[in-house]
Fold:
Amino acid sequence: MTDDEVQTATATYLKDEGAKPFAFKSGHRIDVGKAIDMHLQAKKLLADKATTLGLRRTMVKTADIMGFPVEG
Structure:
């Protein structure tokens, strides 16, 4: 997992919350939506429409790094 890949996974999710799991070059995949559901603080802040874009991005990146791997 590279910084660029995390940035791309984050940007993809912020553009489309229903995006399919993100595939890293290593072959690992992450379901960003599920990762956010598993990260209570990210889930809470992303549900709040008043949360700034910068904080949204930080929360999605954090959830990406913590990850919710997808098999296959």
The CA atoms of residues 9 and 22 lie 6 Å apart.
